[in-house]
Amino acid sequence: MSDEMKNTDKQAVDAPEADMQAAKADTDAASSPSLKKRKKGIVIGVIAVVIALAGVGFWEWHETPGFCAAICHNMDQYLDTYSEPGDQPGHDKYGNPVSNTNAMMATLHRTNETTGKSDFRCMTCHHPIIGEQVSEAVGFVSGNYYDPLDERVGDDLTHWWGEPANKFCVNENCHSYLRDENGDVNYDKLEASTVWMDFNPHSQHHEDIRMDCTDCHKGHRASVQQCTGCHEDVNLPDGWLTKAEGDKVIADEFNTSQVHK
């Protein structure tokens, strides 16, 4: 067989192989963008899942008491009073001794069967309003805050809610059984709730005086029986302070004669 015929036969054999290789190359070229898109979609999906899980984890952490102290160092003493064992001697947010930690509402309400929820966390009372959190973050970063924090009265605690102070303790998580049809404190119900006491601190016989819950019930220091400012026949709950003692705590802490509630 001549060399010319051999070359012709070889070309005839090689032609299908070349066609197959060309077809394969075309197929690979066509599938390559699709494969890249699929891989890119998987990567984006994984990243989205990781971000979502991180967000859920952060939100769960945000709901725990430890979050506040971890982010803001001036919250440590508040977390400490919340975490103290109940019904025993302890210390308030200023480091003052407290004869019974149940006199601090943060300690008492951590596990309490007299409210709408049996398990209380910081956010149960201190609702996370975005505007308030942004304001606090700006104040913290700029150093424009008190340490220890100044005392807050009821109006301060509900300011960002746009609600009156007396709704702080009668929201749906707390003492909702004391509400009227408008969600405000029903003072007749409030008076009836302690009518069994020899001296009823919720008696409404002073028509010209309307006090907020936080005037007496303190979250992170010993609560104060304000009635002792006038009445001497008052039996103090265990660990509570008289009005004079409560005023002295604030005067000593802030080195001022101004009375803080």
UniProtKB/TrEMBL annotation:
Biased composition (Basic and acidic residues): 1-12
Subcellular location: Cell envelope
Record's keyword terms, sorted: Electron transport, Heme, Iron, Membrane, Metal-binding, Transmembrane, Transmembrane helix, Transport
GO CC, any one term: cell envelope
GO MF annotation list: metal ion binding
Name under which the protein is recorded: Tetrahaem cytochrome domain-containing protein
Pfam families linked: Cytochrom_c3_2 (PF14537)
Region called Disordered, residue ranges: 1-32
Tetrahaem cytochrome domain segment(s): 173-232
Naturally occurring in which organism (per UniProt): Cryptobacterium curtum (strain ATCC 700683 / DSM 15641 / CCUG 43107 / 12-3)
Residues passing through the membrane, by range: 41-61
